[in-house]
Recover the amino acids of this structure.
């Protein structure tokens, strides 16, 4: 029988949760989220500076490179609270890039990029392609070695906040094997980026045409550890995505409960009707289960149990968020169908999160392989 | 009471672990019930009564209850450790659960000195089996509508009426009874009294009810001018509703003080996986079917999540915003989970799901069929899942009461 992960909380996790709760509530109230919907950048530069000043981009960066020397377990509460308030921006991708560089980067690359991340330079991740396969090893974009460095070809999609990123981390094939390349945004012509219209209006997403881009050899992350890097990236991305979704579930549930307490029909608040209150209880139970699995995954992130704990958290978070946000629209009645209702923002975010790094069914398929081996 | 040191707890954990490793009965030769509500035969009853006494005598039940009444006099952490060891060794359930987990803690908290001296030890040893008299034939979920009359006559109450779905009613020595002492109360919830009732009083009789499983397990209990001592009153006369609500908090795990022990065995999701391995579909193990795999993983995730919820309820920074929320959801979550898992097991068994208990061809002796049918005892008894959702909605989520529920 497979031993399943336990749960616990570090002092630093608790501190980060308090800090993130205060910060996100103050900096990302729903009016601000709405004000940014039509903003091309999609996040506030000044808020980003504060994120940096608080050291949030360097939580998981070793102290020798200017970070706090903690781990992704301490990033989870930040992602969770950003998820609650629908705070958008390059935070997750930058954290994931830092984690990756720290894991498989050369000493020079670490010394170059990690302090810059702590200082607020941002990364975008260019992983997805036209085939839409969540397998990060499924790559068609290529780097072909030339006289000085390599030339890239192919297209990457769903690159979040690519236009305003300082760097873009790309997965390509080189000599038939996966390779990780760091591009400087300044070396990419604006015409290579096309803004995509995606379901989550809080996120800015781009297609990136790699054709003809030249890179120097030192832009490549060490190739002998790429396999490990990709599985680590996948695990980390799923952990933070789960945290985002758990946060979103809580917020959309609170929103619906508040409405059910105030909207009156037939002389009663609609929350008095069991047809409304019982599904809300089920949504809440889903949330509390997802939360337990998330904290367990965070607590065990650096152990072998993470392999099972993370996909469990990711799968349950998606189910909980989808249900809570779906019912939020329904229980808001016709108001819920309008663009002005916040329920829609959460449902759209939930669908976007579900689309990233492997959905619930995909996670469960992987879990079955691990658990029933 | 002084808080135990880490070393004391470690030693106690090792002792308890060793004791349950050595003494937990295995392969008893007949099917044991998964919950105290499922006790259906004399064989099961006698076995579980002995097992409870054995655990008590070893010091692993009521370890934290006061010594002067029969408990172990230790810090609650010791009992928590012992109960954990029981879970680990998957021990048979505690028979006298209504005593150990509901009536016992209630009496220790608000009972009189005489109550504690008279009842606590017999609860722990299972010498005195307890049952609960709340539901009536016409009043189930609407407990406040109950009619059984308790008329005060000097030092006695005279009882008339009927209670139903009395688990262990045919075996019980005492009943926690909720009765109407004021026939004309100011409101529906006033004028009730909570009375400890000896089941051997003349005028009390039980009639066994056959369950959906085909076994016996609970009774209808009749009261015809049954005269019982008034000193069984808990709390003030007329305040029975408040006492009953406190009792339900122990029952639902929202209030602590239980003697410990296992009153309901959680189905093991990995047992489903074993079943899926041994079931054949089109010549291959069912575990290779992607749909069944997906469903099995769902169960494993859900059970694991709820187990983690138990752990995090004790960690302030990880608990739910409503401190009792995670405990209050247990009854709903575990009982529905048990029903769904055994139902899924029946699906997995395919053609073999037709066999029932005592059929030699039946897989695991018909365990899954019986478990599925028995699972409803927990989704209905002790407040139906629908009532549980009302409670959670109103007490945890802060949603309004449904004011069509008269008198509420």
């Amino acid at each position: 029988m497979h031993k399943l992960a336990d749960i616990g909380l570090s002092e630093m996790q608790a501190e980060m949760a308090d800090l993130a709760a205060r910060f996100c509530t103050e900096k990302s109230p729903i009016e601000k989220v709405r004000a940014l919907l039509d903003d091309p950048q999609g996040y506030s530069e000044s808020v980003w500076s504060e994120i940096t000043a608080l050291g949030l981009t360097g939580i998981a960066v070793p102290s020798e490179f200017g970070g706090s020397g903690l781990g992704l377990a301490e990033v989870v509460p930040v992602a969770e609270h950003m998820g609650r308030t629908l705070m958008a921006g390059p935070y997750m991708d930058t954290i994931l890039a830092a984690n990756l560089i720290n894991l498989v980067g050369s000493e020079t690359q670490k010394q170059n990029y990690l302090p810059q991340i702590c200082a607020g330079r941002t990364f975008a991740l260019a992983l997805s392609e036209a085939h839409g396969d969540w397998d990060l090893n499924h790559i068609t974009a290529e780097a072909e070695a030339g006289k000085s460095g390599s030339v890239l070809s192919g297209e990457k999609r769903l690159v979040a906040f690519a236009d305003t990123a300082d760097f873009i981390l790309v997965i390509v094939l080189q000599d038939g094997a996966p390779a990780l390349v760091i591009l400087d945004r300044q070396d990419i012509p604006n015409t290579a980026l096309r803004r995509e219209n995606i379901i989550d209006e809080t996120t800015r997403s781009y297609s990136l045409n790699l054709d003809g881009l030249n890179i120097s050899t030192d832009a490549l992350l060490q190739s002998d550890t790429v396999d490990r890097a990709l599985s680590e990236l996948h695990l980390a991305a799923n952990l933070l995505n789960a945290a985002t979704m758990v946060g979103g579930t809580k917020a959309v549930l609170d929103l619906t409960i508040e409405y059910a307490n105030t909207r009156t029909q037939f002389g009663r608040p609609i929350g008095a009707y069991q047809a409304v209150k019982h599904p809300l209880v089920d949504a809440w139970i889903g949330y509390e289960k997802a939360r337990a699995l998330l904290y367990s995954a965070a607590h065990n992130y650096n152990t072998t149990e993470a392999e099972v704990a993370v996909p469990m958290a990711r799968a349950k978070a998606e189910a909980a968020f989808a249900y809570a946000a779906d019912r939020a629209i329904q229980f808001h009645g016709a108001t819920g169908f309008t663009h002005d209702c916040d329920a829609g923002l959460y449902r759209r975010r939930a669908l976007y999160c579900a689309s990233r790094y492997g959905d619930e069914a995909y996670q469960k398929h992987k879990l079955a392989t691990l658990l029933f081996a | 009471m002084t808080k135990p040191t880490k070393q004391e707890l470690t030693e106690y954990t090792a002792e308890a672990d060793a004791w349950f490793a050595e003494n937990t009965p295995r392969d008893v030769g007949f099917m044991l019930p998964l919950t105290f509500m499922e006790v259906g035969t004399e064989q099961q009853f006698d076995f579980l009564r002995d097992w409870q006494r054995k655990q008590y005598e070893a010091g692993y039940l009521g370890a934290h209850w006061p010594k002067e009444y029969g408990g172990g006099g230790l810090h609650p952490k010791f009992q928590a450790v012992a109960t954990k060891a029981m879970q680990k060794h998957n021990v048979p359930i505690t028979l006298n659960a209504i005593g150990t987990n509901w009536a016992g803690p209630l009496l220790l908290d608000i009972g009189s000195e005489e109550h504690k001296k008279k009842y606590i030890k017999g609860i722990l040893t299972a010498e005195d089996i307890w049952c609960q008299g709340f539901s009536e034939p016409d009043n189930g979920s609407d407990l406040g509508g109950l009619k059984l009359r308790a008329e005060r006559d000097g030092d006695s109450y005279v009882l008339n009426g009927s209670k139903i779905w009395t688990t262990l009613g045919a075996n019980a020595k005492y009943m926690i009874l909720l009765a109407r002492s004021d026939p004309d109360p100011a409101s529906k919830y006033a004028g009730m009294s909570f009375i400890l009732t000896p089941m051997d009083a003349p005028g009390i009789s039980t009639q066994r009810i056959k369950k959906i499983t085909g076994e016996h397990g609970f009774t209808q209990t009749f009261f015809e001018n049954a005269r019982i001592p008034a000193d069984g009153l808990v709390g003030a006369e007329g305040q029975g509703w408040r006492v009953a609500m406190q009792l339900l908090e122990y029952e639902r795990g929202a209030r602590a003080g239980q003697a410990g022990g296992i009153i309901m065995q959680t189905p093991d999701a990995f047992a489903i996986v074993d079943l899926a391995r041994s079931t054949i579909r089109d010549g291959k193990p069912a575990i290779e079917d992607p749909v069944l795999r997906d469903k099995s993983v769902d169960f494993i995730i859900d059970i694991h999540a709820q187990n983690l919820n138990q752990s995090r309820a004790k960690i302030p920074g990880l608990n739910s915003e409503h401190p009792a929320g995670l405990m209050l959801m247990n009854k709903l979550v575990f009982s529905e989970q048990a029903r769904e898992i055994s139902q899924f097991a029946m699906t997995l068994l395919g053609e073999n799901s037709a066999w029932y208990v005592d059929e030699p061809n039946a897989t695991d002796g018909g365990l899954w069929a019986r478990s599925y049918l028995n699972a409803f005892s927990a989704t209905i008894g002790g407040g139906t899942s629908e009532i549980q959702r009302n409670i959670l909605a109103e007490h945890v989520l802060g949603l309004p009461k449904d004011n069509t529920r008269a008198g509420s």
User: Anything to note?
Assistant: Chain A is about 50% helix and 15% strand. Residues 227-371 of chain A form a domain with the Butyryl-CoA Dehydrogenase, subunit A; domain 3 fold (CATH 1.20.140.10).
